[in-house]
Structure to design on (455 residues):
């Protein structure tokens, strides 16, 4: 059985666990713990090691989705998780500009570990105070060729779209390198 | 949709850069416990600014910018009952008190000072209103934001923030693709000009610092200012390893068979995800 993996990363509370949960065929193996830090108490629990989801592609191939812990103090995990990935998704909470700088820093770190294709998923776009995609592009200093996608991590179709766009980017990059 | 947050998390320089690059039209409202400031933009350029508790009328601005003495101010004020700024501006030009340029320069100076003051506001909520404009009777200007951003970025002294913005001096800088921006129209310091001369993807920021005899803090500060003004972008130095195709390893040229297999693998995943 061949396996491939994609990584879902992003700041704390960006929606990585929900994203994987929306498409995984197994219950996400989540290592959530109750929040202890005052600064991070925007939700009850957070991922401290990684989330782990699976999609069986066919009899011989399985896709694993790994969600990284969002808190900075677990960034030693990132390099291990990024090894061998097909590509990665950077999740950003569109309603929390205080996390944009960290999102950019995570993006750059992952791209340095493994310069594979990636897309940015602008999560929580259904909320009234979500920033526009083009404003987010400037705030995150994304080049014009980087895809920034509307996302609602709790909706399966939205998550599928993000994954498909990442896969199209991987195909496009293969074409580019082959030229 | 909303463009709102707090200057503590998203600095004014970053905000002005966004407004500039996105050619935004509307009003930035910044609030502090004591006052609010409204800054109006048209097509990404500063058009008008108003501090909540200040008299932002033309006559007052001309007085504050020392274009009118107190006696002239009082004399004119006594005669302009109900006259709006545009009407007063025309009157002053027709009476040869001022040229149109004098009035616009005074307004620009006042509006820029208002924006500059905001750079000292650290923990203030902001929001951008797309459909809020200055009253029709107000005179607006068109001021490029790059110089304001550059000047304010020179004041950023926080090393921690600079480290976040420019995590590694081993990165290089390249000029941003901004065909409408002429760098010669900008007011750069001599140190900034020296740095600009070395901007090339072949040179790392550290190499530029060495060549221009600048400290780590100084080079970070200058690079930060140029980035915030949208003039340059961070890039990997030319000659660094090329991106790999799959799996994060430096890629060797693929054989046709390998490529066919990988394309097939990706297509299988695409088909499966479509069917979920």
């Amino acid at each position: 059985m061949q396996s491939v993996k994609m990584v879902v990363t992003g700041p704390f509370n960006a929606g990585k666990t929900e994203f994987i949960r929306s498409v995984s065929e197994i219950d996400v193996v989540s290592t959530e713990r109750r929040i202890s830090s005052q600064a991070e108490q925007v939700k009850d629990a957070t991922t401290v090691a990684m989330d782990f989801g699976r999609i069986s592609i066919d009899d011989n191939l399985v896709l694993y989705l790994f969600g990284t812990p969002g808190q900075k103090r677990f960034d030693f995990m990132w390099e291990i998780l990024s090894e061998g990935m097909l590509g990665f998704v950077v999740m950003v909470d569109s309603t929390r500009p205080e996390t944009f700088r960290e999102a950019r820093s995570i993006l750059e770190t992952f791209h340095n570990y493994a310069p594979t294709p990636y897309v940015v998923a602008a999560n929580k776009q259904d909320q009234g105070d979500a920033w526009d995609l083009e404003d987010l592009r400037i705030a995150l200093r994304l080049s014009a060729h980087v895809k920034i996608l509307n996302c609602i991590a709790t909706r399966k179709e939205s998550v599928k779209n993000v994954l498909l766009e990442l896969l199209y980017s991987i195909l496009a990059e293969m074409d580019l390198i082959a030229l | 949709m909303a463009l709102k947050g707090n200057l503590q998390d998203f600095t004014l320089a970053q905000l002005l850069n966004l407004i500039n690059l996105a050619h935004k039209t509307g009003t930035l409202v910044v609030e502090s416990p004591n006052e609010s400031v409204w800054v109006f933009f048209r097509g990404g350029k500063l058009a008008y600014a108003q501090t909540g508790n200040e008299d932002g009328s033309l006559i007052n601005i001309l007085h504050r910018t020392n274009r009118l003495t107190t006696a002239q101010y009082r004399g004119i004020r006594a005669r302009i009952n109900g006259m709006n700024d545009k009407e007063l501006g025309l009157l002053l030009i027709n009476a040869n008190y001022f040229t149109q340029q004098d009035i616009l320069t005074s307004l620009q100076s006042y509006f820029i000072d208002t924006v500059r003051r905001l750079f000292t506001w650290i923990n203030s909520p902001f929001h951008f209103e797309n459909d809020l404009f200055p009253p029709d009777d107000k005179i607006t200007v068109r001021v490029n934001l790059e110089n304001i951003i550059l000047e304010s970025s020179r004041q950023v002294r926080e090393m921690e923030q600079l480290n976040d913005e420019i995590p590694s001096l081993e990165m290089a800088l390249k000029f941003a693709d901004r065909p409408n921006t002429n760098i010669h129209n900008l007011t750069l310091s001599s140190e900034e000009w020296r740095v600009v001369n070395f901007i090339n993807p072949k040179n790392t920021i550290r190499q530029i610092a060495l060549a221009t005899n600048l400290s780590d803090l100084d080079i970070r500060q200058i690079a930060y200012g140029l980035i915030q003004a949208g003039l340059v972008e961070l890039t990997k130095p030319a000659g660094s390893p090329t991106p790999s195709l799959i799996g994060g390893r430096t890629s060797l040229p693929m054989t046709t068979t390998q490529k066919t297999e990988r394309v097939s693998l990706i297509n299988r995943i695409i088909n499966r995800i479509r069917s979920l």
Summary: Chain B has eleven helices and seven strands. Chain B touches chain A at residues 1-6, 8-10, 14, 17-18, 21-22, 164-165, 167, 227, 233-234, 241, 243-248, 251, 254, 259, 262-263, 265-270, 272-274, 276 (CB under 8 Å). The longest strand of chain B covers residues 36-42.
